[in-house]
Amino acid sequence: MSRRKILISACLLGENVKYDGGNNALHVTILERWKDEGVLVPLCPEVLGGLSVPRPACEVLQGTNRVVNRIGEDVSEAFSKGAKESLRIAKLEGVCMAILKARSPSCGKDIIYDGTFTSTRVNDSGITCKLLQESGIVVFSEEELCLAEAFWHAKGNDPL
Ligand code: SF4
Asked: Considering the entire predicted model, what is its pTM?
């Protein structure tokens, strides 16, 4: 029987796709195990949307789906494209849950920055996170790995 898959922000697996050219690699046992089991689907919505690495930092304008970068350009279209492409891949791969990088304007769940580039946080989610959730995919941040693991096992996915 085919197993379901887990979408994951590529930067969490050490891919250098962050706006500054770096990554957010997390070296934890559960991610190593899922990687070895072949259930992870890593992607970067901003790269899928056509943005370069490196790129200026971006933030969602509070209360909207519009995204601007630090030099004042409107990058909403690239963010929307990246979100749709992420969803397309998720469906193709049979993804049932996602682990996304906290506070990113694409991947952030529940808390992101407010669009003023002043490190001000607001209760909202990134563009890709919202689209995945609206499509029925359960999202966890990398700060909720225990919850993610419990959900995965509740879905009947025992370790190989
Ligand atoms: Fe990581 Fe998501 Fe930002 Fe890409 S868009 S660098 S995957 S947090």
From this structure: 0.96
